[in-house]
Design a protein that fits this description.
It is a single chain. By secondary structure, this protein is α+β, with helices and mostly antiparallel strands. It has one domain. It has a 5-stranded mixed beta sheet with strand order 1-3-2-4-5. The chain is globular and about 50 Å long. The protein starts with a helix and ends with a strand.
Length: 332
């Protein structure tokens, strides 16, 4: 138990100290490229996959990040579809009748994004206002997404229309792999594979508390907040289960390589149920996991977004002073 508490602190607090000590001031895109080049071998080692090419890395202002989000949301969800989704969420009581979904999602994601990978340009984009010690956290996560894109067609998964369940399952698998893989990159002494099944999901409250320090996230409906957190923690638990069951195999081997492949959250949910039972979780916990998976499918299965890094996630792993750093690096 003491060991688990220490590891938990590594993700929520200690990782902050480790990253702060190891971080160096990075100014300009030249130094940024050096950080990416230095981390690539470590990411390749922890994932068991080699890079076929080096991704680009570019800085973006917060306004440019917002413009990118608006473009992606509007591209994936025309006004008629957005209006239908908003009406459905209101009828189900998932959002207040007065809440406007589009500006809410734009504001929350703009606040939360600490970096993202764009498959169309094969580039990592890092906001210019990210602090130096947070940079290693963001780059390590987004590099995993860049590597994933070299083995599965991320753009095909992201742009699937009317396939919310399929996209949500893929998002959790991919975000979970990136979350799991970046831990030994940032802290080589840690071995996340040794964590008990279901451990990441149990850190949900700590991560939510970190993100709650951010104004837009704190005022967002529960549906939005849960949907942001689930892919990283629930997906990480699934990846731990996969590594235990399929030793020396990559989870990407089971991912679809084309749009028509059969792939849904049922695949992940069945594994989560096995995971829950083996970890001794009760019925209430298993129901909460399924509910969160369904919520994630509704919330983020409806809009295509790039693999992202959320500020709150960076904050939970990278500092303990109450501030958060958002990261949208998930696939919708």
């Amino acid at each position: 138990m003491d060991r688990l508490i220490r590891i938990g602190a590594a993700l929520v607090v200690v990782l902050s100290m480790g990253c702060r000590e190891r971080a160096q001031a990075v100014q300009g895109e030249a130094e940024l490229k050096d950080v990416v080049h230095h981390m690539m071998p470590m990411v390749a080692q922890t994932t068991g996959l080699r890079f076929k090419r080096e991704p680009l890395v570019l800085r973006r202002t917060r306004d440019q990040v917002r413009d990118y989000l608006i473009h992606k949301i509007d591209e994936d969800m025309p006004p008629a579809e957005l209006a239908g989704l908003q009406s459905a969420l209101r009828l189900f009581g998932l959002i207040p009748d007065t809440l406007q979904l589009r500006p809410t999602m734009i504001n929350v994601l703009t606040e939360q994004i600490a970096g993202y990978y764009d498959p169309d340009s094969n580039a990592l984009y890092i906001p210019a206002d990210i602090e130096p010690y947070q940079l290693r956290i963001v780059v390590s996560h987004e590099l995993v997404h860049a590597l994933q894109d070299q083995y599965v067609k991320l753009d095909s998964i992201i742009t699937q229309r009317h396939a919310n369940d399929r996209r949500s399952a893929a998002q959790a698998v991919l975000e979970g792999q990136a979350t799991l893989a970046q831990i030994p990159v940032l802290m080589p002494e840690q071995r996340p594979d040794t964590l008990p099944l279901g451990w990441f999901w149990q850190q949900r409250a700590a991560m939510a508390a970190q993100q709650a320090q951010m104004k837009q996230f704190a005022h967002a409906p529960l549906w939005v907040r849960e949907g942001l957190i689930f892919p990283y923690l629930g997906g990480a638990d699934f990846n731990v289960w996969f590594r235990h069951k399929y030793v020396n195999r990559s989870v990407l081997d089971s991912m679809p390589t084309r749009l028509g492949c059969c792939f849904s959250s049922c695949w992940a949910m069945k594994s989560k149920r096995r995971l829950s039972r083996r970890d001794g979780m009760g019925t209430a916990t298993r129901c909460a996991v399924r509910k969160a998976m369904r919520s994630s499918g509704t919330a983020f299965g409806t809009t295509a977004r790039p693999p992202l890094v959320l500020r709150g996630d960076c904050s939970a792993r990278g500092r303990n002073d109450g501030r958060t750093v958002g990261r949208p690096d998930a696939l919708r």
